[in-house]
Amino acid sequence: GAGVSQSPSNKVTEKGKDVELRCDPISGHTALYWYRQSLGQGLEFLIYFQGNSAPDKSGLPSDRFSAERTGGSVSTLTIQRTQQEDSAVYLCASSLSLTEAFFGQGTRLTVV
Amino acid sequence: AQKITQTQPGMFVQEKEAVTLDCTYDTSDQSYGLFWYKQPSSGEMIFLIYQGSYDEQNATEGRYSLNFQKARKSANLVISASQLGDSAMYFCAMRKDDFNKFYFGSGTKLNVKP
Fold this sequence. Notes:
The complex is a heterodimer of chains A (112) and B (114). Chain A has strands spanning 5-7, 10-13, 19-24, 31-37, 44-50, 65-69, 75-79, 88-95, 102-103, 107-111. Chain A is mainly beta. In chain A, strand 4 (31-37) and strand 5 (44-50) form a beta hairpin. Chain A is globular. The mean pLDDT of chain A is 95. Chain B is mostly beta strands and 114 residues long. Chain B has no helices and 12 strands. In chain B, the strands form 3 sheets. In chain B, strands 2, 5, 6, 10, 11 and 12 form a 6-stranded mixed sheet that branches. In chain B, strands 3-9-8-7 form a 4-stranded antiparallel sheet, with no helix packed on it. In chain B, strands 1-4 form a two-stranded antiparallel sheet. At the A-B interface, strand 4, strand 5, strand 8 and strand 9 of A face strand 5, strand 6 and strand 11 of B.
């Protein structure tokens, strides 16, 4: 596709369940970022991948959160044993050039 | 550590007028980029404009321009001829020139009045 694609668009899960959020970056983009945005708040950095370098995981809020990027393309963010405070919009962005970066439409996660 | 400050939580502008959204940043890096994003109520983040730290000219993209004052560490977004569709949240962000993470400001909610 032409843009960054995230799936699912919406996810409702029960507290304690595991969830996987997917991000398909723009083809050829080497940098991929995950952020989350709680209702009415700013963007909180989670993790980023750049090429073959080790990812920067410094923003992951707990060890329940993990992410991987397979083959330098698709990325999956996994949240284990979800808690209500995990409810947020999870945004993915990709970048090839220093002068631009594009976001997907986000995944709205609701933990009930 | 990098920090982005947007001091205007909310702003109103009359349709067809120009508006300036403020952004200041703090960094010890010499090479970096500044970005502005628009987030309508639908939630998507739309990339608007980029300014490099070494760019001598202010960036422009259509009705958007960036008033870059490097010595003052400010990167204000100017929207000319505001339209109703410009009503949205606007975020300023900075990234070092090594594809490191973005640092975002807290955003400014712009309302365009008819």
